[in-house]
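Issue: copy button drops trailing tokens. Both records pasted manually instead:
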Amino acid sequence: MLEKEGFASLVLRLRAEGLTDLDLLTACEQTPRSQFVPPQFIGDAYSSRSIPIDCGSFMEGADLAVRILSRLQIRPGQRVLEIGTGSGFMTAVMCRLAERVLSVERYRTLVTAAQGRIEALGLRNVIIRQADGGNGMPGEGTFDRILVTAAFSQIPRFYAEQLVHGGSMVAPLMLDDETCMMVRLTKTGSRFEREDLFPVGFLPLVPHIASQL
């Protein structure tokens, strides 16, 4: 009951913002957020506030998570790369929209927990790997969409090689010491077209996999 009420109020807030993508909202409804938050935060699963998870990480508030996914515009048949698995909630939603998802996370604890949650939902079209995604994932081929949930200090041009022509990447970009902006970068030839979306509060990208946790 809590799940249904929480999702219903989330949909009302999103519709007020003009977000009405039925495929995305259905994928979110099929992915119970209460299974991705720590037990003590179940009451906040569908709230707009960010929620602390293991390893000093956070999961985005429900509104922001869906807003980001809506800007990614995932279509059936696409391959998606996610840098920063976190709780695995956005990973799971993307699995319902895309053909394949490769998600990387620097903390082993988060990888193991996310794998368990996604397997419990019966999702099979995903690989979650402990890896350093700071320089892309060379050797994994190309992707139609790339989602990053840690902030870059400059436009990460090395990802251009991993996007198909016309593919796009949604990532946080530090504009200055105070301002972090979610941007969409669309690949045209060998260059990116940049579109600023909305300000966010993501932490800076940390290189290398974590030696502990």
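Record 2 (pasted manually too):
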Amino acid sequence: MRYQFKFRPYRRRFVRTLTTNHGKWDIRDGIILRLTDESGKVGWGEIAPISWFGSETIEQALDFCRHLPAEIADEMIFSIPDKLPACQFGFESAWEMVKDDAENEIHKFPASQCPRVPVSSFLSYSALLPAAEAALNQWESLWQQGYRTFKWKIGVDAIANELHIFELLTHTLPASSKLRLDANGGLSYEEANLWLWTCDNLQVNPEIATEIEFIEQPLPVEQFEGMLELSMFYGTAMALDESVATLGQLIACYQQGWRGIFVIKPGIIGSPSRLRKFCQQHNIDTVFSSVFETAIGRQTALQLAAKLSQNNRAVGFGIDHFFEQEDTWLQSLWNNL
């Protein structure tokens, strides 16, 4: 099968700077692509790289798109190299949409009515809190919007300050809430021990109603053995994130013995079909998470989450408050493809 191929880059500014251990992030760059088959069926895809997380750069993705012909075939889509995982996701997502007649109706909708994946009864959402003290001022508005699971970035300030804010946060969050701590690989082994010890002690404190669900990527990627070791010493669960940014990394960590939580970012993991095959063959504990994509990439990501999530963990897609309303902006982009 052959398809007409068009693409358009985009830039979106965050409402507020996103601060992680990797630094500050102000602008999200990506690419929207469209495939049209010989019968006129349309599929949309999104390429949203995060190079510092392990994917290709936006420049590499654009270069790849610019060197493709206006008409491409199935073989081209499924031969995209593993060094371009965000491209693999974007093209294969569009290809699957063309093949799925039900979802293909997307091309008839304005962006504001872009079809959303039906939310399964078990598919709940986690909201990302701002780093540092700002988290204390924002969780309540997100709670009122219906969020019950929150993620807070750590490893961005002095550990004493963060532990103090953490104590305030856990004493403030309501009963039935869950809190995830995301270090983005920014802790030392000693700091990770201290965080895990603190969380273990909080979990047995009758005054704390908040559940500490897990600590995400406490150590750098190259310290996998250290994370494997820590996971055996403490009751607080740990999750790999940067260590499993791509499908190849995920498979490697599984083969090396990781049986904790895997945070999967579909937008940069690589091929959706290969991801489905691996997850269906291995009963891994997954949390699906956003890469700050638009509604186009989010649709495929949530479809994967709904199909592959095993343990009813909230998906990390509560990030809308980091952007202005996207409907008008996405509609304009849509119309110019």
